[in-house]
Design a protein that fits this description.
Low-confidence stretches: none
Order of helices and strands: HEEHHEEH
CATH architecture: Orthogonal Bundle
Number of strands: 4
Strand content: 15-25%
CATH topology: Recoverin, domain 1
Mean pLDDT: 87
Largest sheet: 4 strands, mixed
Number of helices: 4
Amino acid sequence: MTQETVLASPLTSDFTAGDSILRLPRLIERTGLSRSTIYALQIHNKFPKAVLLGGRAVGWLDAEVSAWLEERAAARKEAA
């Protein structure tokens, strides 16, 4: 089993027609995280899982990434 197989899952019913997919370069830009950090967080279930788009292509649901970012911001406020 490859790392990609473990880290990506096929689209599920959670996906709606209005959701957009973020590919890795855009995800890195949006989160400020490195590629290796994103995959490490996924392995530990601390970041949204990638969605298998086909072949070797993966992406992340924008709505899930937005929710993750909001959780991080809320945790920062609680810690202050």
